[in-house]
């Protein structure tokens, strides 16, 4: 998980795109998405696949294997394949999987797995469950990044080792995983250690430093040792190296007269990576990673700047963005998130996504988190582990490159799909439905809307698809809770894979954002061709 910066007193500072609409016999033409073919490497600040094609990771974190449960959270709530289906349908192409060494120990047992909805996982070890998730994710064109999140399930650590897990164990376990997945390109690499950070106060800091030369504390040197050992075991993996919080390894001391260094979030300060780069035996496997959080997670001084949010790009440039902009190496924003309950947080997230850029040449990211049980950020889904947080998804959606496999990518996450229905599509048995259209938000040049459709028939509609008419000049930007597409002035919302059936008496709410005027509002809603009242 994410944590606040350590220098408390520092003075400075697709559209759910798819090439096919799930649940319909359809024809479609779309900009190709996906994460490429084979293993990944780097070319300057760009990730490329085995064919040399540019790819971009636009994913999220699904945590739990680092906790006492020793496996993915939410396995008590719904079938695990449904979860992966939903992630892919929403447009996430990569999953960052946190784990702790406790999950890898002989005799480790996963717990909190529902025996009814996930009967095929009962009795499996944490690694066996991970294997199944990886195999299914790979079949969907998704990628997996393994993240050593904690040395034990008890909690995070400032350094990459603790008495219960010395450096030798850390490296040995990484080599075991590298060999275990040596022939599986779904698993792309190792995020070596989560959020190394400062401990103690300057000038007597005892936490992770960058470039200080102390073999016991210099995270840059440790990353080299571990990274090269992993590449010896599996030369195909990416080596993902996070930043620190304060490059000295010590927190600021507010009670002395010594100027304090600028410090960032735990794992978020890569300001010295340009001067002291990580040196790997295979330089084209190095990816730098930072973490970035919102005001509600911790109140950083830069959130008070009168120039907010326009001051943020300069801060990001200094801590980690320069590595991408100067073509040093790719940057993966491995964690960032918020509940968005603070209005300032939504502004922060929109600015951050703009900063990372659209299309295949933008920065890579894995949002924190899928899980709703992340205390200070919440998740993409709500407490039922299924309902999508529409506010978050609408901000992220334009930047997602869906997982469709293949080795080419046009670089655009926007997808234009034309759908033609076949006679096999199930009609509404009685033709009965009601619909409500609501403009949730509007701004200069665009708006956000939700459409609630109720099946008033006497039988389920399976698969369901709703259509509505928009004024000329309105163009779809993103959608959620369905695969939303546009053809002319018609928006089509096709049933997602995790909820293909709309039962008699049941309702579904589809959300979307669009460019163009919000008035007149969308109208003419139909459910599988039947006009709704």
From TrEMBL:
GO terms for molecular function: cellulase activity; polysaccharide binding. It catalyses: Endohydrolysis of (1->4)-beta-D-glucosidic linkages in cellulose, lichenin and cereal beta-D-glucans. Keywords: Carbohydrate metabolism, Cellulose degradation, Glycosidase, Hydrolase, Polysaccharide degradation, Signal. It comes from the Bacteria. Residues 1-30 form the signal peptide. Gene3D superfamilies: 2.60.40.290, Glycosidases. GO terms for biological process: cellulose catabolic process. Its EC number is 3.2.1.4. The keyword Signal applies. It is an enzyme of class 3 (hydrolase). Residues 410-432 are annotated as: Disordered. Pfam families: CBM_2, Cellulase. Residues 426-533 form the CBM2 domain. Residues 410-427 have a biased composition (Low complexity). InterPro entries: CBD2 (IPR001919), CBM2/CBM3_carb-bd_dom_sf (IPR008965), CBM2_carb-bd_dom_sf (IPR012291), GH (IPR017853), Glyco_hydro_5 (IPR001547), Glyco_hydro_5_CS (IPR018087). Belongs to the glycosyl hydrolase 5 (cellulase A) family. This is Endoglucanase.
């Amino acid at each position: 998980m994410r944590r606040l910066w350590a220098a408390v007193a520092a003075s400075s500072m697709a559209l759910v795109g798819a090439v096919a609409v799930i649940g319909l016999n359809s024809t479609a033409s779309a900009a190709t998405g996906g994460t490429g073919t084979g293993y990944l490497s780097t070319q300057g600040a760009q990730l490329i696949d085995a064919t040399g094609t540019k790819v971009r990771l636009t994913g999220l974190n699904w945590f739990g294997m680092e906790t006492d449960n020793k496996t993915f959270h939410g396995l008590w709530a719904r079938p695990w394949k449904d979860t992966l289906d939903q992630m892919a349908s929403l447009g996430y192409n990569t999953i960052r999987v946190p784990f702790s060494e406790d999950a890898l120990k002989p005799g480790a047992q996963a717990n909190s797995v529902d025996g009814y909805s996930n009967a095929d996982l009962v009795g499996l070890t944490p690694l066996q469950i991970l294997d199944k998730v990886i195999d299914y994710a790979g079949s969907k064109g998704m990628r997996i990044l393994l993240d050593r999140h904690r040395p034990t399930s008890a909690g995070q650590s400032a350094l990459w080792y603790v008495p219960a897990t010395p450096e030798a164990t850390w490296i040995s376990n990484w080599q075991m995983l590298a060999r275990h997945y040596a022939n599986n390109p779904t698993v792309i690499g190792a995020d070596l250690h989560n959020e190394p950070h400062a401990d103690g106060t300057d000038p007597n800091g005892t936490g992770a430093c960058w470039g200080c030369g102390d073999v016991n504390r210099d995270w840059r040197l440790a990353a080299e040792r571990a990274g090269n050992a992993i590449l010896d075991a599996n030369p195909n993996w990416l080596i993902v190296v996070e930043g620190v919080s304060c490059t000295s390894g010590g927190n600021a001391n507010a009670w002395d007269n010594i100027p304090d260094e600028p410090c960032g979030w735990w794992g978020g300060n890569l300001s010295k990576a340009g001067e002291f780069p990580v040196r790997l035996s295979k330089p084209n496997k190095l990816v730098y990673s930072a973490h970035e959080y919102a005001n509600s997670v911790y109140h950083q001084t830069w959130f008070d700047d009168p120039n907010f949010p326009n001051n943020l790009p300069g801060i990001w440039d200094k801590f980690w963005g320069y590595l991408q902009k100067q073509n040093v190496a790719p940057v993966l924003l491995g964690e960032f998130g918020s509940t968005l309950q603070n209005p300032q947080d939504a502004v922060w997230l929109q600015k951050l996504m703009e900063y990372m850029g659209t299309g295949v040449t933008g920065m890579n990211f894995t949002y924190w988190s899928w899980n709703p049980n992340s205390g200070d950020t919440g998740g993409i889904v709500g407490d039922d582990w299924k309902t999508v947080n529409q506010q978050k998804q609408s901000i992220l959606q334009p930047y997602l490159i869906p997982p469709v496999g293949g080795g080419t990518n046009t670089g655009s996450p926007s997808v234009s799909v034309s759908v033609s229905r076949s006679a096999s599509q199930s009609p509404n048995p009685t033709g009965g439905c009601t619909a409500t259209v609501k403009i949730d938000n509007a701004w200069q040049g665009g708006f956000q809307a939700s459409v609630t459709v109720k099946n008033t028939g006497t039988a389920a509609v399976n698969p369901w698809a709703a259509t509505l008419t928009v004024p000329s000049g309105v163009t779809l930007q993103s959608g959620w809770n369905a695969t939303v597409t546009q053809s002319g002035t018609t928006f089509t919302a096709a049933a997602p894979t995790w909820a293909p059936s709309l039962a008699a008496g049941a309702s579904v709410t589809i959300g979307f954002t669009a460019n163009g005027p919000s008035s007149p509002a969308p109208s003419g809603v139909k459910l599988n061709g039947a006009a709704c009242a």
